[in-house]
Amino acid sequence: MARGKIQIKKIENSTNRQVTYSKRRNGLFKKAHELTVLCDARVSLIMFSCTNKLHEYISPSTSTKQMFDDYQRATGIDLWNTHYLRMQENLKRLKEVNRNLRKEIRHRIGESLNDLSFDDLRNLEQEMDGAAKTIRERMV
């Protein structure tokens, strides 16, 4: 008996959608494994479920990095450089946050106060008073 065609659209019922995802995921993994064994192909399959759970299949004796390197060579797209640039931007942002926090610590211990404006000094004084009040309340 032949199976009927189904209409390809999002399955609205979340339980049915998850069951279908699991069954089809397993079928895709089985096909990927068959391609690896029968055709000596290197296969990498990466999937994320609707709950953002990672599922992957990578041919035996192949690493994910190796697959990405081969993809990069074949397409001419530099995947690692983009990632490196993002990491550099993040590092720059974190260094700025670190610099600001260190400056704030120096101010709170009474160092480098000459470069503060009157309003900044007033705010620092209020913060210190608030911190002292909090400490006194905890001690009682």
UniProtKB/TrEMBL annotation:
Gene Ontology CC: one annotated term: nucleus
UniProt keyword DNA-binding, yes or no: yes
Gene3D superfamilies: Transcription factor, MADS-box
Localization annotation: Nucleus
Domain K-box: 84-140
GO molecular function: DNA-binding transcription factor activity; protein dimerization activity; RNA polymerase II transcription regulatory region sequence-specific DNA binding
Pfam families attached to this UniProt entry: K-box, SRF-TF
Domain MADS-box: 1-61
Primary localization: nucleus
InterPro entries hit by this protein: MADS-box/MEF2_TF, MEF2-like_N, TF_Kbox, TF_MADSbox, TF_MADSbox_sf
Keywords: DNA-binding, Nucleus, Transcription, Transcription regulation
GO biological process: positive regulation of transcription by RNA polymerase II
Entry protein name: Uncharacterized protein
Protein source organism: Turnera subulata
Source taxonomy: Eukaryota, Viridiplantae, Streptophyta, Embryophyta, Tracheophyta
